[in-house]
Protein: LIM zinc-binding domain-containing protein
Amino acid sequence: MPNWGGGGDKCPRCQKTVYPAEKLLACSAAWHKGCFKCKTCNGLLTLSNYKDFSQDVYCKGCYQDKLHPHERNRKQLENKFSKQPGGAASGAPAEEE
Ligand SMILES: [Zn+2]
Ligand SMILES: [Zn+2]
Structure:
């Protein structure tokens, strides 16, 4: 019985076989390094900064949105109503790295 897929682990993102050289183990699955991205914003993740949520991986920011979606809505509303010309917005998300 031929096994055209190669019989290795399948990447959850692209459904293709993951070879050991490009394999990342996370979320009880094997990922291509290049496919190990936040499902929401597509930002590349590493094993030290990803968050797993319902069998998928997210960056820290998007993971927070998943956990507290209402908080995000509230922030967007606040931004809408606090548009002040020339005012430096406080509480802006800190850039990482
Ligand atoms: Zn992949
Ligand atoms: Zn993200």
Remarks:
- The domain at 9-81 is CATH 2.10.110.10 (Cysteine Rich Protein).
- The pocket of zinc ion (ligand 1) is lined by residues 11, 13-14, 16, 32, 35 (CB under 6 Å).
- The CA atoms of residues 70 and 76 lie 10 Å apart.
